[in-house]
Write a structure and sequence with these properties.
mainly alpha, 1 helix
């Protein structure tokens, strides 16, 4: 099994420290923003799922129409 290594440079450590300090100072203010982002992410995921389902359904209907011909009014 191949093991991946992560190279941490001084700039990476400094960036991590800056982000950590920012989060400690502004954590309570960031929480509502994170909740909004999470909610938006869930909505986008839901929309993508619905579009995918409708696309597959349309493809199946078109395929059936191609094989059996157009729908005719039934009794």
């Amino acid at each position: 099994m191949r093991t991946g290594y992560q190279i941490v440079t001084r700039a990476t450590k400094e960036s991590a420290t800056i982000v950590e300090e920012f989060c400690q100072r502004n954590g309570p203010a960031l929480l509502p923003l994170i909740n909004v982002i999470e909610s938006a992410s869930q909505q986008v995921e839901s929309i993508i799922h619905e579009v995918g389902v409708q696309t597959v359904e349309m493809i199946l209907k078109l395929s059936a129409e191609q094989v059996a011909g157009p729908r005719t009014p039934g009794r």
